[in-house]
Amino acid sequence: MRENVEEAEKHIIERITQTLEASDVKERDQFMDTILATDKIFIYGVGRSGLVAKSFAIRLVQLGLKVFFIGETVTPIVEPNDLVIIISNTGQTMSAVQTANIVRRVGATVVAITSRDHSKLAHAASVVIHLQTGTADEDSELAPLGTVFEDSTQIFLDGIVSNLAKKMGASESKMRARHSIWV
Question: What is the pLDDT of residue 174?
Fold first, then answer.
């Protein structure tokens, strides 16, 4: 059994490495510039992509940015000039596509993070971060149901946070001071 776990771990790490190495550096820079140029950031995702999105939202809050997760009861209305980041592996998730279409009509910038750059979500977005994960058939046994996309996206976004922190002059101690303390 242990060999199977180790095989899966090795496969997932190799696939994440391939995915991140294939990503476009210009997209990363444009994404960071867009984040730094906006007043309010909204983030959305469903399922495990939603968990990755929430994780990124937490880090942006710790950087001192004004961030909201779409769908929470205290989330304000998206307005023109806001930034909306939507994460969806397939780019076909109905609620993600609908959200992108609605906020684009409002005048917000939509960044789609997806594995399919010709998806409905990608077409509705202003900017597309394409994380090329390959086909599900390659991963179905060792990394099922979008694992490579979700894990790659998490690491991609953690790298973005690291670079944003440098650009913003945000030290770990400043970020820690904004870390939630739930009682």
Answer: 76
